[in-house]
Fold this protein.
Amino acid sequence: MPSSPVPDFARALIGLVRSCRRVLLTGPKDVDGDSLGACLALATALERLSDAQVVVAADVGWRYRDLPRAGDCVPDAEVRGPFDLAVVLDGDRRRLSSDIAAVFASASHQAVIDHHRSTEGQGYDLALVDATSASTAELVHAVLAAWQVPLDADLACLLLTGVAYDTGGFRHTNTTPQTLRLVADLVEAGADYSPVVVRTASERRKAGLLLLGHTLHGASFHADDRVVVGVVRRAKLAEVGAEPGDLDFIVDQLLYVQGVDVAILAVERGTDAQPRVKLSLRSRGGTNVCAIAAALDPCGGGHQRAAGVVLEGQLDAVLAQRVLPMIQQALDSLPPAR
């Protein structure tokens, strides 16, 4: 079904949940602050308003282990159905981990809450999709407001984590006046602003710092220095003992270079026999990297200025033969700068 307005969606969702025994909330593979914060905030509200057992599926990385209720999350591989309702937040069903995808599909009802431009509401019983929202956490806040759920410090912390992550600590252009007004409300409700934002959008482990330095040192420039590429090999990830979250925001460091229009972080995945590469794409404005990610693979997507995709193949060949030519073509099609 097409996306519903927030009041209609909120009314339909709580009505459905109150008829359910078990509800699954989940985000895409490689959970981030927005998907996890949104899931945990929604779970908290649903448990207050219904008798349903609410399960949050997530492999929680080091960055988020201190979040309220993070310890209640069930690792993807340990989730067992059946569920009466499954809701994916901050992505769509195409981005679910292989462990969760079958559980999600077998649920009696499916729903989506997302703000990515590449997500459509078709194929779900309920859908709330709004690409103008800075984060999925903003949408969850709107749903909670429709339910008249009062904010406490824990809920405010979870929502602030989501907003801070998807705005890059309020540096990205998706930060709107509405976003900042919401942040003020969250701080007023008890969210500890500086620790939450630093932990979510700035802090690194030693492994992450080593990866950042390695990536910046080896960065290459293309298309008359309008495109910068950073590469991280599997061997380097193993060498530094990388964990989920250690690669966060490295691509943004690549983007914020004078003259750069597009930044690419290419991370080697898979095995020698079955190589894959995960691409994080960022744009300073004119280049629609969401369209590029979707053209590279139907499961790719995101936002106009921030997108991602996983491709089969050897990293160097994927970059040289598929990705860089497509980005060059996109840059060539832009109108001349005035």
Remarks:
- The mean pLDDT is 95.
- The longest strand covers residues 262-270.
